[in-house]
Design brief:
alpha/beta, about 800 residues, binds iron/sulfur cluster, 27 helices, disordered C terminus, globular, seven-stranded mixed beta sheet
Length: about 800
């Protein structure tokens, strides 16, 4: 919004007071703040307000503005209560607490009351105001009151000092925005020319961002998709279409690429501040221990040091994990909290999906109120449906409930009683007739309403002890369970026809399983401006549009590979049967097909399998029959170091052939970048179907009822995306060449063929001999350096230009 064409920047009284005046330790203000008590707090406020004398006005909205040279600042707030009797004005600030209030009034609470008094008193021209601070203990309903009379002169001086400091920060931020916008206006695309398809992508993204729309973009490797989404979004930012950019990734590698792209743009003149958010447990300085606010030196006195840290940090523009850690160490502040505090002053936030979508993790400071002009750029969007399904699901285990019950039984009898009730109710649930028995697991289409009250009781009991911040052996398990129940309750609130409840009879695990996260994703995205879903593999488009909360009006852009088609030799061996029952009979055929491919040229190859069992059976036979080839095998549960070791075997300029055996959909199935001759061949055994299991089957049934092919939505399409991702490991640059061998009779079917990208010029090679012939002919050709993709590089540009 703008007044006299000036931008309005608003902030709440609470935010301003906390920002300027907060001091001391992290978490000290509320110690353990029980979010489960928010509703109780509201009710407590209302009870007190109703008990006040006639004429008392509750929830009085106040607003104050100051025109600055470049913007208008607006302070907003809601006073808990105002009572005017003659020329006497009383302003009340109510705080609900979870224990008896014994100490003095909190200076931040006083400050809030004084700001309300200053604004209200000034507007209605009072000479003095009485400020009352009331603490209401939610457990006992007892109140403690503090009162003080202030002259308007004193309140005015206090207010002016507070606001001046805040406005100094805002003005400096506005100055930064001017510098940023000037640099963006002068910014040219960082490469001499656009690659095929890249311009189409950048234009489509720009239009979507400008129109606050959603767009899906399938951009194969080589298009330069990161710069093609960031560059137009940044351009749109300088034109006032974007308030903040959120670049969401599923993996660390995606974050690194985004950081590097911004660095490249900065090298050509861009001034843009960006912070990378790293998960708290990863960036914490506490050596893998649980966050301990009471003893952590980076939490104690955090607020006394944070402004200095942020002020100094803002001399720079890039805040990657390493940089955050450096600043945090220097200023002795918690690195995670520092990254969050810095995020307020930056233009782009690079983070995991969950900071935007997860109902229990999302950044409340950005996504809790009205819609904002954020550009949400979702990298590797093909991963989002699975991740979202997990983010919107929750479970409780009876075993954990009983174990915590046992540990707290002597000291927290109320808590233990509530947990006993929850456990008994979970047991009783299984006896209800509404459940369908599915091989030991019970499935129900309704929410487990009966446990809602006991869970709430447990949360109340646990909170009333946790807020006391007392040490006890059971504190950690109780805290873990508390957060699990809190999450369970939050998900219970989302429960609708897109959910099912499952109960494992053997373990007593009760799960709220989100079958279809699309509606929740859509709802989350309604709070933002534009959304760009992009990935190298988003097919079929309709499946992704539906699963990710897209709407019919959203554009979909599919781009061609920019690399010469001739550099990829794609063979389909459709005489191999890899379905579970046929697997044992396929081992020899798979071994000889792999050998036929790798014998053609010395170099590095990767072969992907649908399971470890299949992989091991084939790898053992291959090693025994062809000991002349070096092999490396992906084992289950590799450590970070073992992963590195696996990848480091794929060296350039090798003089011997290496065959790597990996699992489709696993850690080497996507996100690895083996450029040039580090990888010259990929074989895929099977069509990548996820393992058949209860949850997959429930997803299948859900979509089937929705009028589409449930099997395809639950199995075929996610499987084929794994295949496409694995194939995408091969050609990573315009000078890469190699062979892909798809082994499964289903690759000959129309359904699968239709999911092949159009630039795949596949050949049927139904025998080892045919593989040898086609492969020999391919390797005999010279490398092509012609760019592919035609004039625009777009194979289909549907509605993208609308
Ligand atoms: S450094 Fe770690 S332990 Fe300390 S406050 Fe931060 S997250 Fe908690």
């Amino acid at each position: 919004m703008a007044i006299n064409s000036k931008r309005i920047i608003s902030a709440s009284v609470r935010d301003v007071v906390e920002f300027v005046l907060r001091s001391g330790d992290l978490g000290a203000a509320g110690h353990f703040a029980g979010p489960g008590r928010a509703l109780e707090g509201t009710k407590g406020h209302q009870r007190l307000q109703k008990s006040r004398p006639a004429g008392y006005k509750p929830e009085v909205v106040i607003s104050w503005q100051r025109e600055m040279p470049d913007f208008v600042f607006e302070l907003r707030g809601r006073v808990d209560g105002v009572l005017v009797e003659g020329d006497h004005l009383l302003v009340e600030e109510i705080k609900t607490v979870n224990r008896p209030w014994n100490g003095p009034a909190d200076p931040l609470h006083w400050a809030q009351g004084k700001v309300y008094a200053a604004v209200y008193g000034c507007e209605y021209r009072f000479r003095e105001v009485e400020v009352q601070l009331t603490y209401l203990d939610l457990n006992s309903d007892e109140t403690v009151e503090f009162r003080e009379v202030f002259t308007m002169q004193a309140l005015g001086a206090f207010f002016e000092e507070l606001i001046s400091e805040y406005l100094e920060w805002i003005e400096s931020h506005q100055q930064w925005r001017r510098i940023r916008d000037e640099s963006i206006k002068a910014l040219a695309f960082p490469f001499k020319e656009y690659r095929a398809g890249q311009r189409s992508m950048a234009v489509a993204v720009y239009r979507a961002v400008k129109n606050r729309a959603k767009i899906f973009v399938e951009a194969p490797t080589g298009i330069g998709k990161t710069v093609s989404v960031l560059f137009p979004s940044i351009k749109a930012m300088a034109e006032g279409h974007v308030e903040k950019i959120f670049y969401l990734t599923a993996k660390t590698i995606g974050r690194t690429v985004a950081e590097k792209t911004l660095e490249d743009l900065r090298a050509t003149g861009l001034r843009l501040r960006a912070v990378t958010l790293t998960a708290k447990d990863k960036i914490c300085f506490n050596n893998g221990e649980r966050c301990d606010l009471k003893n952590c030196p980076f939490a104690l006195g955090y607020y006394d040091r944070i402004k200095g840290a942020v002020r100094e940090a803002l001399q720079r523009e890039s805040f990657t994990r390493g940089e955050i850690e450096g600043i945090a160490k220097k200023h002795q502040v918690c690195p995670f909290e520092l990254s969050l505090d810095l995020s307020l002053w930056v233009d782009a936030i690079i983070c995991d999906y969950n900071y935007v979508f997860d109902p229990t993790v999302s950044l409340a400071r950005y996504f809790s109120d009205e819609r904002h002009d954020y550009a949400i750029l979702i990298d590797e969007s093909h991963n989002l449906a699975e991740r979202a399904r997990e983010m919107f699901s929750a479970d409780l285990e009876r075993e954990e409930i009983l174990s915590v019950k046992k540990t707290v039984a002597l000291e927290l009898t109320g808590c233990a009683r509530a947990l006993g009730k929850v456990s008994a109710q979970i047991s009783a649930l299984s006896k209800s007739e509404e459940w369908a028995d599915r091989n030991g697991a019970l499935v129900n289409k309704t929410a487990p309403e009966t446990i809602r009250i006991s869970l709430k009781k447990f949360l109340e009991e646990a909170e009333s002890w946790l807020v006391r911040d007392e040490p006890a052996e059971f504190r950690e398990p109780l805290l873990d369970l508390y957060f699990r129940v809190l999450r369970f309750n939050a998900i219970l609130e989302c429960y609708d026809e897109r959910y099912v409840t499952t109960l494992d009879k053997a373990t007593g695990k009760l799960r709220l399983f989100c079958l279809d996260p699309s509606a929740l994703l859509r709802k989350a995205l309604k709070r933002t401006g534009s959304t760009i879903f992009f990935s190298a593999t988003l097919r079929p488009g309709e499946y992704f549009r539906e699963s990710l909360g897209g709407e019919a009006a959203d554009s979909f852009l599919q781009l061609n590979s920019p690399f010469p088609e001739e550099n990829l030799c794609l063979m389909v061996h459709d005489k191999v049967a890899t379905r579970l029952r046929a697997r044992a009979a396929s081992y020899e055929q798979v071994v000889s097909s792999i050998e036929a491919m790798v014998a053609l040229k010395t170099g590095n190859y990767l072969v992907y399998f649908p399971s470890y069992e299949y992989l091991n059976q084939v790898a053992e036979r291959f090693q025994a029959l062809h000991p002349g080839y070096r092999t490396v095998v992906q084992n289950f549960g590799l450590s970070e170091e073992e992963r590195e070791q696996f990848i480091s075997q794929f060296r350039t300029g090798t003089s011997e052939t290496l065959v790597g055996f990996a699992v489709l959909g696993g850690i080497f199935g996507e996100g690895i970048d083996l450029i040039g001759d580090r990888l010259i061949g990929v074989a895929i055994v099977g069509v990548g179907l996820p393992q058949i299991c209860l949850e997959r089957d429930l997803i299948r049934e859900y979509w089937q009822k929705g009028g589409v092919s449930g099997f395809d939505y639950a199995y075929t399409f996610p499987g084929m995306n794994r295949v496409l991702q694995a194939v995408g490991r091969l050609i990573r640059s315009e000078t890469d060449r190699g062979i892909v061998l798809l082994m499964d009779d289903r690759f000959g079917n129309r359904l699968y063929r239709e999911m092949f990208p159009v630039w795949w010029d596949s050949r049927q090679t139904g025998s080892e001999e045919a593989i040898r012939t086609a492969g020999y002919s391919f390797w005999s050709q010279p490398l092509s350096t012609e760019q592919s993709g035609g004039a625009t590089g777009a194979t289909s540009l549907q509605r993208a230009a609308s």
